[in-house]
Amino acid sequence: MEALLVIDMQKDFLSPEGKLFGGERLRRIIPNVRDAIDFSRDFMPVIFTQDWHRKDDEEFSIWPPHCIENSEGSEIIDELQPAEGDIFIKKRRYSAFFSTDLDLVLRERNIRKIWVCGILTNICVLHTIADARSLNYEVTLLKDCTEALDDHDYEYAIHHITSVLGADVITLETFKTLREEDVE
Questions:
Q1: How far is it between the farthest Cα atoms of the chain?
Q2: What string of DSSP letters covers 133-174?
Q3: Which pTM does this prediction carry?
Q4: Cα separation values, 68 from 12, 89, 147, Å
Q5: Is there a contact between 72 and 11 (Cβ–Cβ < 8 Å)?
Q6: Measured between alpha carbons, how far is residue 152 from residues 9, 33, 145, 163 in Å?
Q7: What is the rounded distance in angstroms from the CA atom of residue 115 to the CA atom of residue 46?
Q8: Model pLDDT for residues 107-157, shown as the tens digit of each residue
């Protein structure tokens, strides 16, 4: 079994009025992420992660306050409205596995392969993939469905994900082709 993991596609990061808006560079992946989600719903569960902080979160010594639990900024962006049956994992740290139910949710569904998209490639995506690989999940990143704040951070993360973590990195079109071949 497999799942699509959509990391932190939230208003505080992707809306111009967001607390930690990453700019148009991040927004340009929204159509591809939406396409990946719409396509995947026919084959596998879709799991959204949400950065989800308390007002006094320790992370705010590093970053400005953002994605405060139950705030508008913590919501998934309007362009990616979740559907009935989608799964949500709320996280307080970079990795979607750290102190969350993600591993349990995956194991209960016998999911061993994770397709990953979302933001930021060099922070939450990278840390989540690292933990997934440590837990022996098979991981593939959809490289045109993820983004970082600059080219250096993006390229560093892609290199680390492939050469250190041993995860695969492919395009959305390759993902769709592979999935369609598996169904035939």
A1: 51
A2: HHTT-EEEEEEEEEE-SSHHHHHHHHHHHHHTS--EEE-HHH
A3: 0.95
A4: 9, 15, 22
A5: yes
A6: 21, 22, 17, 16
A7: 10
A8: 999 999 999 999 999 999 999 999 999 999 999 999 999 999 999 999 999
Peptide bond into 120 cis (omega under 30): yes
Find, among 31, 23, 62, the residue nearest to 150 by Cα.
23
Q: Which residues pair with 141 in a beta bridge?
A: 116, 169
Report the distance separating Cα 155 and Cα 135, nearest Å: 24
Question: What is d(CA 57, CA 52) in angstroms, rounded to the nearest whole number?
Answer: 10
Query: Under CATH, which number does the domain 2-183 receive?
Result: 3.40.50.850
Q: Where are the alpha helices (DSSP H) in the chain?
A: 11-14, 24-27, 30-40, 102-108, 126-134, 151-163, 172-183
Non-local (6+) Cβ contacts of 184 within 8 A are none
Place of tokens 């990946």: 36
Q: What angle do CA 101, 102, 105 make, to 5 degrees?
A: 85
Is the pLDDT score of 49 beyond 70?
yes
The residue with tokens 């989540």 is: 128
Segments making up each domain of the chain, as ranges: 2-183
Cβ burial of 96 (10 Å; 0-12, 13-18, 19+) is buried
